[in-house]
Write a structure and sequence with these properties.
The structure is a homotetramer. Chain A has about 180 residues and is α/β, with parallel strands linked by helices. Helix content of chain A is about 35%, strand content about 20%. The interface between A and B is medium-sized, with 28 and 26 residues.
Chain lengths: ~180, ~180, ~180, ~180
């Protein structure tokens, strides 16, 4: 379980991409003399993100690297806010996003794995490291997931966040189109 | 071993795709500015499905997501019934399939891994969760596989199902083109 | 170590492809509306096959399934004999290959993982199952590898085969272009 | 930790590619009747290589095999020296590179996994084997990584190398654009 007070304040779940929504792998090759890159995403993570719809928590992707794979996956998951910036551009990009949404850093839960996430961890209300995060990052996290990135880490974060807010069962019911509870 | 009485009633093996025939991964990238998606299937699962031919048990794929990868794999495995619907459309799609085949829910074994399979688990005669299924789903399953999805879980289900019906050796002989036994 | 007497008779190393040179995975997707299939091969296996050159042991691939991926990998590894047949066509295909080369089944080491390899195991002088082989197949093997298919199983077979023949160090020297030993 | 005296001499980090920057896998298939090959690279390794910029240690890739995937990944990581040669051509290629840079073998740390790296290990000041290296190679290495190739082995080497030189914290600060220290 996450800290209940901190969890209840969250309005935005920020996700690093490589190492968080993926297992840190990129698959690189040439097709017809052009560079092609694939990333490996997890379907159970995707269902978790779908469970957040209607919960009052939005999702944003914040990557320190540009990739068409990330854009395609975000579109499929109906994630509108996709920030693909330079590694040292995460904080200003998130600041602008929070400003636009009228939110504060305290209302941000952020999941990361590596040094480029460190300045975000220092500011976010709920900094969470995945199991495969570098030690440097784990030391700054309030929570470390059991699952690894690309293998259900994001699903685990979402389930724990909903549980810590007492909203997990309602989210399951809502996802299944059953007895909705008002929020 | 599965429950023998329940196993003997089975006429249709329904398989979720992501997380069951795959390890929940999708590989996403751009080729010539178009989205491309790969899925990872297991050849030993495929041989298991081939072993069912002539057994009196049909196979159907029921996915809560559309993917060309699923269609191609189904064609290769000679699976005619491929239902790719919205996550909340699995029950009506299976109902229509059962009706068309003159079967009941009790005659359906179904293998799943996530929340979208929950309403199917509540109806199927033999609901089976893969090792990598969410806990919520495992709690509703009559059996949980040792192998994970995409790493032989479907093969394990098929072998256990045939063993529980006392038909495993006959299926091996039939696959190898040896002394066929009448069924 | 393999049986020394049996090892010294080997003139041909036959390799199943899926589950032996790969981890049983196929990656399936659509590119420009056409089916595309990738297989995952291991570079250390490839170096092992290169070590056999000049050893007097030839290599052949015998697959129960056709795939361009197999043809490309065979070409890269300079394997001339690539038999891609129906699952029940392995024995006659190997028989024809042995006849053409003037060899007997006793001179064949064969590495397999699944039921389609069973009739070959019953005939080959040195039937070897990979760690990820089905139990049915392991029961018929003279040896079971520690490594899994696609993760060094073939390299392990080649190193053990050379060691059992007392030719490992010579093969290393030959690969590195050092003091060749006559064979 | 690496040997401090040996570490302080290093001016060039040479990396084998397959099995070191990857998990030894190549993904092979046909797209529009042409051979396509993908390799799987690790993003945390990439950040490690970025950490070396400004450290006075250059990075070179030395592969015994040609692949467009390697060229693309090198370009992305801003690695100018990419030697893709025959397996037995690594030593002369590195010799020429060292000559051009005015360096000696003692100033080279080299990370490898297989027989083709053996002649390099015999000459390099700091030969390092990855966890998945063949035993033959591990025996010649001064260090063996805990992480496997393609799963953070290169990141581990870089962090240990910087720590052994007492430069790790400075490299983190430099990467994050914080209080730079002169070098």
């Amino acid at each position: 379980m996450f800290d209940m007070a901190a969890s209840r304040k969250i309005k935005l779940l920020g996700l690093d991409v490589d190492g968080v929504l993926t297992d840190n792998a990129i698959f690189v090759g040439a097709v017809a003399d052009a560079r092609v890159e694939f990333k490996r995403f997890d379907i159970q993570d995707g269902l978790g993100i779908a469970m957040l719809r209607g919960s009052g928590i939005e999702v944003a992707l914040i990557s320190g690297r540009h990739s068409e794979a990330t854009s395609y996956r975000a579109a499929e998951l109906k994630i509108a806010d996709v920030l693909q910036v330079a590694p040292d551009g995460k904080v200003p990009a998130i600041q602008a996003l929070l400003d636009r949404k009228g939110l504060t850093w305290e209302q941000l839960a952020f999941v990361g794995d590596d040094l480029a996430d460190l300045p975000v961890f220092e500011r976010a209300g709920l900094p969470i490291a995945v199991a495969n995060a570098r030690d440097h990052i784990k030391g700054l996290a309030k929570h470390v997931t059991i699952a690894s990135g690309g293998h259900g880490a994001v699903r685990e974060v979402i389930e724990r966040l909903l549980q810590s807010r007492g909203e997990y069962e309602a989210a399951v019911d809502r996802y299944l189109g059953r007895t909705e509870r008002s929020e």
